[in-house]
Amino acid sequence: MKAWIELEGEINNLSVCAKFTNYQDQTITIDYVLRTKKVGRSGDTSTSQKGKSIAPTNKILALSEARMNLSRKDNLFVKLFVYHNKKLVAQDSVVLHGDNE
To answer: What pLDDT is attached to residue 96?
Structure first.
């Protein structure tokens, strides 16, 4: 099993997408949590998205997507956790420093 986070777009219009692939030989049910935290001059904001999905074998699933508007001085922290039968089976995290001009 594999989970990953994809970032697309420009810093002022960023798309964060959580994805998952099940490499087992049977379809499974998963639970997931996608957490985002933006830290910047205007303050901190956090969001958490949770859900369930059925993961067929060898298919890429888009679990959740979020749009972010960041400034050049903001930092973004994203964490993805995927559970099967209440056990953590895959995770990923991304840190984006907006001051990389």
So the answer is: 87
Give pLDDT tens digits for 38-56.
998 777 889 999 999 999 9
Alpha carbons 43 and 50: distance in angstroms, whole number: 24
pLDDT of amino acid 41: 78
82 CB-contact burial (10 Å; exposed 0-12 / middle 13-18 / buried 19+): buried
Strand pairing report for 75-84 and 28-40: antiparallel
Beta pairing class for 43-55 and 13-21: unpaired
Amino acid at 22: N
Q: Which two tokens stand for residue 80?
A: 């993805």
Q: Give strand pairing partners of 96.
A: 76
| Distance from C-alpha of 18 to C-alpha of 3, rounded to nearest angstrom | 7
Mean per-residue pLDDT, 66-79: 88
In whole angstroms, give the CA distance from residue 5 to residue 10.
16
